[in-house]
Amino acid sequence: MFLTNEPLPIKMGTREEKKVFVLKSWGKRLAFWGALSLLILSAYEFYTRIDSMVGPLKMFFDMWIGEKIPFSRGIRYIKWEIFRAPVFLLLCFAVGLLSLLLSPRFHTSLLLFFLSVLLTAGGLYLRPDFFAFWWDTTKLLPLILLMSGHLFLLIAPKLKPKKRRAPALEAPKETVITYDPFGVMQQDRQHRRK
Fold it and tell me: Based on the structure, what is the number of domains in the chain?
């Protein structure tokens, strides 16, 4: 519908209003599909990486509980680099869930845009040779969709045409007669004059 020259389903007045409508609708679509694919992909990746986390944690708990090694000494044997990717995937899952649950307002779009930029930078930081493997590069596509969707939602209100204000009405020059059926106001005025 939006890629063809078909008329928009809503009648709008100006060209700027049509641009705002198209940007908002594309922003909502990109944000939704980016968040949904980010949820699915990060949940799948986290599920496949559980085995790599369980092994070191099992070894740590066997040493700590079974062999009675002190906690501080047992922690030194854990390779913390193993937990970078699962933590990154949990953060991706949380951002995708937030994007699906929160309404696309200006402040939430701003927050989710910056979070998706940070997560994209974090994904590139996790593997310096990220672009060497095409599969790892495609994993960032949901974040890029989410980022661009919220960017469209941030840009759309700025393009909205400003409404022209009608000139301010002047106060009537004639006096206003107040409703006073029992003469209470008149009695009050006579009382003040005395």
Answer: 1
